[in-house]
Each structure stands twice: as C-alpha cells, then as structure tokens.
Amino acid sequence: MKVILQKDVLNLGDAGDIKEVADGYARNFLLPRRLAVRANDGNTKVIVHQKRLADLKRDKRTKVMKDLGASIDGKVFEIKVKVGENDRLFGSVTAGDIALAIKKTGIEIDKRKLDLGEPLKALGEYKLKVRLAEGVTPNIQVKVIGEA
Q1: How far apart are CA 48 and CA 44, in angstroms?
Q2: CATH number for the domain whose boundaries are 69-147
Q3: Residue 148: pLDDT over 80
C-alpha cells in the first residue's frame, strides 16, 4: 500500500515522503496513529501543495534573517555590570542581558539565538555567534564594562 507520511517515522522516512509499505503495517500502525494517509490523487496534491507552501515560508524567513544578520554582523555591544574589588563581577552576563543590549539599539533578537557556551563571568571583549537561521550566523562583539 502506498502511503504519504504525515510525520517523521523512524526507519521509514520523513514527513511528506510517499512510501510503499506492507498493508498490515499501514492499517495497524501508521493509519491509526495518524502518522500517514493513503496515497491517492487528492492526498498527493494536498501534500505537494503543503510542501510548496512550507518551502516558500522557509525561503522568506531565511531572507529576512539574512537582512537582520547583515545589520548586526560585526557590531559591538557594550554591557555595563557592577563589579566588586579586583574587578570581579556580581553574577554573570547571560544571553538575556546581551539580547536586552541588542534590543536597545532597535534590533529584536531572541536570547536563545545567541551562542554563548557559558555565561560571561569576567570583564573584557567576547566574540559571539548568533544563530538566526540555517546558514545565517553573523558574529557580534560584546564588551563587558565594569561600573563601581
């Protein structure tokens, strides 16, 4: 039986793929769990249309993210933090703090897109990557400046 996968199925295929499977596997596993639908002309046309829409949406999002990446690539953002004796920070600089500093310049970036590795716990300059979309990773520079 030919089926169109609605979701990714381990060891079978990805969503949108058309696969030939055993009748029992389709009737007893794939169809009841809504992992697949029978491949007929109507369902095939719907899946092709959905794939085309998803591709257009992904291309539009990538274009927007490339424009955003070009606007922040290489920029320097300063973050002022309170320090104690010997220039030790009270706490650390997190991705949320950096996202807030970027937002003050008028550019909105989700803090989960910033690739810190670890929170910044010392004064200085740091180079960070911003993972905006597939293949769009601009670099920014963060200066952590102490204030008494």
Answers
A1: 6
A2: 3.10.430.100
A3: no
* Bridge pairing between strands 36-38 and 124-130: unpaired
- Tracing tokens 């949320």 back to the chain, one arrives at 96
**What tens digit of pLDDT does each residue of 113-138 get?**
998 888 888 899 999 999 988 888 99
pTM for this model (two decimals): 0.67
Give the separation between CA 62 and CA 57, rounded to whole angstroms.
9
Topology at the third CATH level for domain 2-53 = Ribosomal Protein L9; domain 1 (3.40.5)
CA–CA dist 38, 106 (Å, integer): 49
- 36, 22 Cβ separation under 8 angstroms: no
What six digits make up the tokens of 30?
A: 């794939």
Domain ranges for the chain, please list them.
2-53, 69-147
Q: Quick count: other Cβ atoms within 10 Å of Cβ 80? A: 11
CB 98 within 8 Å of CB 142: yes
